[in-house]
Design goal:
Distance between the termini: 34 Å
Strand order of the largest sheet: 1-26-25-24-23
Largest sheet: 5 strands, antiparallel
Number of helices: 2
């Protein structure tokens, strides 16, 4: 059930419009309801790691890959999944990683250079390197070269999640060893000694304000732009007494800058769901609101702002979270392409320009960071130097969000 924490109902209603919860299970084509991970492909399709194979969802139906349909897949029990910028799909298992190139799978194991075969998480770095978290370490694959990292660089407990900051540094979620940061030369560490609420790290997400949201076994710790601990959120999801632990399974930040957290506890009670934070208030959702189940594993947010939640009981898509990018652009009087963008973005006015105009670029806190004269109906803006996150473009009275990735 939805619980509203510390603020009036009207404020929450203004922040979070009426969401739509759509759940998918084996009845809809999933090969298994036990879904461990999710990834959004460049073409917008959604890929899932399930107990019974890989599943691709194109918005209408599921396509399933298993060891029968795709013999190159090393195992049907998929633990982690990622889709690279070139469209390759990386499926991690307890027996290595299998890579789908659009036609078939190729499997890599310790025989090829993996540090170990038990994969926990997979992410592509901004420079195209593939990083795999493993049970006891991590492996980087760069231009076909495998580099394995283990003890003492990776403390006991392995790596549960991989993320990258705007400098390209690699942030690893240590299962027991705190936050592990790799700058390309050496490793550094953030633990409870630096203020983290727990050394059991499950996920790390970066905000457009350069804050780091660190999901742990006891809640979320927040770091500022200088990596200094500035606070904790230990109860984003209210649990029935006496269990108040908030084990965080994943953290993600949506297009509006809201922080989403997956929570699951199975100790004195079996309880869980997702909570969302707008900067002042947490709102939580569970099965009574439409989630597939309490055992939340991973979260992903697509280009329209929909939140995908994987659980052991199926997948839930939370849509209509707020006004979407496409709707804002249709009403703003101009369009942005591409969006999301990484190097440059085109601003197209949808009406004839009469006299000189201007465009303005704001960060997520609506601080103006750039502005210039617009003397034509199209202008190209270099955004290659901007940090990843949410921005806003203003032309005349119209405003449209821009995502830099």
């Amino acid at each position: 059930m939805k619980r509203i924490l510390l603020v009036p109902v009207l404020l929450i209603a203004a922040m979070m419009h009426a969401q739509t919860f759509t759940t998918y299970t084996t009845a809809d084509g999933l090969p298994s309801n036990n879904v461990r991970d999710v990834a959004i492909a460049p073409d917008g399709s959604v890929w899932f790691a399930t107990q019974s194979g890989v599943a691709q969802f194109d918005g209408i139906s599921f396509t399933v890959h298993n060891t029968v349909s795709h013999p190159g897949l090393v195992d049907n029990s998929i633990v982690a999944i990622a889709v690279a910028a070139n469209g390759d799909v990386w499926a991690g298992t307890d027996f290595g990683v299998s890579v789908f190139d659009g036609d078939s799978y190729t499997t890599y194991t310790t025989a090829n250079g993996l540090g170990e075969n038990q994969i926990t998480n997979i992410k592509e770095a901004p420079n195209g390197d593939i990083w795999l978290g493993t049970l006891n370490g991590a492996t980087r694959i760069s231009n076909g070269v495998f580099t394995a990292f283990g003890s003492p660089d990776i403390p006991f407990g392995g790596v549960l999640h991989v993320a990258f900051d705007t400098n390209g540094d690699v942030w690893l979620s240590g299962g027991l060893g705190g936050v592990i940061r790799y700058d390309g030369v050496g490793f550094s560490y953030l633990t409870t000694a630096q203020g983290l609420v727990s050394n059991k790290i499950r996920s790390i997400a970066f905000g457009s304000d350069l804050r780091k949201w660190v999901g742990t076994a006891k809640g979320i710790s927040v770091l500022d732009a200088d990596d200094q601990h500035i606070g904790d959120h230990t109860t984003p999801f209210l649990l029935p007494p006496p269990d108040t632990l908030n084990p965080v399974s994943d953290v993600a930040i949506d297009l509006q800058g809201n922080v989403w957290a997956g929570i699951y506890v199975d100790y004195l009670v079996t309880e869980g769901g997702v909570s969302v934070y707008d900067g002042s208030t947490w709102v939580q959702y569970d099965e009574q609101d439409g989630l597939a189940g309490p055992n939340v594993r991973r979260l992903a947010i697509d280009a329209e702002g929909d939140v995908w939640v994987t659980t052991s009981s199926g997948v839930t898509e939370i849509s209509d979270v707020n006004i979407g990018i496409s709707e804002l652009q249709r009403t703003s009087g101009f369009e942005l392409f591409p969006n999301p963008a990484s190097n440059e973005v085109n601003i197209y006015r949808n009406y004839a320009l009469v006299g000189p105009g201007s465009w303005e670029l704001f960060d997520a806190r609506m601080n103006r960071i750039r502005a210039d004269v617009m003397t034509a109906d199209r202008v190209v803006v270099d955004v290659s130097g901007l940090a990843q996150g949410l921005y806003f473009v203003k032309v005349g009275s119209g405003v449209s969000p821009l995502v830099i990735h």
